[in-house]
Amino acid sequence: MTGFQNIMILGGGGFGTALACVAARAGRSVHIWVRNPAIAQEINRLHTNSVYLPGALLPDSISATLDPASAREADAVLAVTPAQSVRQTLGLFAPWLRPDAPLLICAKGVETGTNMLMHQIAADIAPAHPFAVLSGPSFAADIMQGLPTAVTLACAGRQTGIDLVQTLGTQSFRPYLSQDVIGVEIGGALKNVIAIACGITEGRGLGESARAALMTRGLTEMTRLAVKLGGQAQTLMGLSGLGDLALSCNSRQSRNFNLGLRLGQGESLAQILASAKGVLEGASTAGAAVQLAAQAGVEMPICAAVDAILNQGAAIDTVILELLARPVTSESS
Fold first, then answer.
1. Which sign does the torsion angle of CA 23, 24, 28, 29 carry?
2. Which residues are catalytic?
3. Number of domains comprising the chain
4. How far is residue 235's CA from residue 239's CA, in Å, rounded to a whole number?
5. Upper half-sphere CA count for residue 275 (Cβ side, 13 Å)
6. Domain co-membership, 155 together with 253
């Protein structure tokens, strides 16, 4: 069997558990690290994770652990925690990682405070380890049902990328290899912010045409920033850019779209966050992404508008009017 055999998943949320099932279906031995003892016990005894994936049965080859030292047995490690927890989690595990074990980062976001991408955090915390990122249009519920799902796996080292693709690839879960780590990360992080904007238009009843315009102009913003940071425009036309954007902006399964929808319907951000099940990555990424863009000298009016609504107390209708009042320029700008 090619690829890596012993896989460690950091994070037992919905997506982490779904990726554990992907690896198990590919014939791998899988351990999930979780913080909650009750979830670990349920996974080990009942082969379920009712908190995050109710009704789903996990393969017997998956086990859960609370012990970071378990990572010393792993051939490859998948970090599937929320983006704002990646630094802390990798710091906890770094002393236990095998020297040759690659880190596959599956979180989507920009770190608040530092404005760093996830692979930059990995390089900061565990510089000796090869790293890769995984992103693309993928709902945990679809993955669990074995429905066809395609994602992008980006890795600077081609052979490590090939090994990771072979580790996770199945007939229903198809990772496509890329070497554009920056482009893949920017697509995964910013699509969440654009999804919030699209949800707001739905909540305000602004119509499908407005949503299509936001998606298209949002894709332009994503591409502009990715290229300025060293990514490739072509990457943003693929699964981790356009593909993930289309999914997140058009489905109520998207937590970020629903955040925007509820904001548009008049709920406060505090109310929404208090009742949310799972992490709303776009809410924390918006401000950091706008700061990152400012550092790079890139204008991103849609992302800035979302940041103004979420973090600066701006009124939704005022922000919409300001966007509509912007000068009309060429479509390529």
1. positive
2. 191
3. 2
4. 8
5. 9
6. no
Beta strand 76-79 with 173-178 is unpaired
Beta strands across the sheet bearing 62-65: 62-65, 29-33, 6-10, 76-79, 103-105, 131-135, 149-155, 173-178
The one-letter amino acid at 73: E
Q: Which amino acid is at 71?
A: A
What is the phi/psi pair of residue 35, to 5°? -90, -25
Q: Are residues 56 and 113 in the same domain?
A: yes
- Among 128, 147, 179, which residue terminates a domain? 179
The tens digit of pLDDT for each residue in 151-205 reads 999 999 999 999 999 999 999 999 999 999 999 999 999 999 999 999 999 999 9
Q: What is the pLDDT of residues 213-249, one digit of tens each?
A: 999 999 999 999 999 999 999 999 999 999 999 999 9
Amino acid at 326: R
pTM: 0.95
The answer as to whether 332 is a domain residue is: no
